[in-house]
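All the exercises in this workshop are built on plain-text protein records. There is nothing in a record beyond a sequence line and a structure line. A learned vocabulary of local backbone shapes supplies the integers on the structure line. The question running through the whole workshop is how a given chain folds. Here is such a record, shown just as it appears in the course material:

***
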Amino acid sequence: YSELGVRDAAFREIPQSLGAGKSERGRKVQMCAFSFTLLASLASMAALMLIAHFWVKDVTLKKGLWVVALLVVATQIYNFFLTLLRTLKKIGALGWVIILNMLFVAALSLLGAKFFGVVGLATGILVATLTSAFFAKTLGNIEIALDWDWQGIAGLIQIGLPMVVLSYALLSFLSLDALMIGKMIGMRELGFY
């Protein structure tokens, strides 16, 4: 949720624009959403790298956090492309990308873990995610450019942020029974529930 619901807003706004025959507006929403998603993921990456650099002493954990920080950016871009493929109704490309991603993650994470341990596992997932993002862009014939229209980005945040808040509220509501049972009969019994 580091992109503050901008991707969700784009999922709503792009088809609406295209359906109304405003393809240029749809393209602008796409570029603004991509720009902000990239910026938010880079900020998250920087925060993780700073935490790893200043507060983590274990070398393996530090390397792992650096890879995970890069993985945050790769995952946000990959998820953005998946959302865009759904939005543009490129279902064939979407299906292939998801299948390729599963194969890449399985192969590269297992190989990375076997030869390089935890850092290799995370690196394998990073490479798989970047490769999948590339295939999503290529198979979906997605055009991407940066567009720093801050009014447009603010409009997307205004639409998407309430969706994020509602998602958290729904998740909390759906987990409420587990919290209540854990409080009433204990955490051990909750594990059986």
The chain has a mean pLDDT of 90. The first helix runs from residue 6 to 19.
